[in-house]
Amino acid sequence: FLHGAGYSAMCGHAVLALGRFALDYGLVAAPSRPETAVRLRCPCGPVTAFVPWDGRCSGNPVRFHSVPAFAAATDLAIDVPGHGMVVVDIGYGGTFYAFLSAEQLGLDVCSSKTRDLVSAASAVTEAVKKQFKLHHPESEDLAFLYGTILTDGKDAFTEEPTTNICVFADEQVDRSPTGSGVTARIALQYHKGLIQLNQTRTFRSSTTGSLFTGKAVQATKFGKYNAVVVEVSGEAFYTGTATFTVEEEDPLKYGFFFK
Asked: Which of 82, 139, 153, 190 is deepest in the core (most CB within 10 A)?
């Protein structure tokens, strides 16, 4: 899962896309109709995608079942330079995110400038990293904060979509509602008693308006944490194919980075 600052432990939208790719390019020996399970071993652990299959090609929507997701911390007071004290939740959905309403930072996730949202979210990420130590039940390599997700504050269950923006890695903004973020947010809402098993919520990206749905489908344990398996559903589309070539004489064959 490649991004501008390296690689991620989990990417939900990529899982949706990989599920379709695996079927369309013959990586699954005997796909079944009307839906085929595609099991992927992600850096965070095994994830299963469920992909529509009509006998010729894959379709949408695709859904996946997450690794166990849990609330790492709730109502955590964090001092954010330039913003003062804020209260965040930290959830794990294949990677760790800090969550808080944009309102706490004097912003609106739907109407504020993206640059302002990115700057504020990045400040929260850096503050949490300095003030709270994360722990992963199986691998300390996964015990890092991937980013901050600013929300509209609508955490209680409702049929209406809830909107968020995910700022991750080196100030990148997700074009989708963020599959691993939806997973972590569902885990937090379940932990707080705001939703029940199999209650479906809809999540909207504030940047593009694209939608995912998510629901907790199974309660489980993950180390010391009470956890849930979350089902996330959304759409993935082909945009093109590419072939990359490396010539030994190329002095920039390992790539370069402009910022």
From this structure: 190
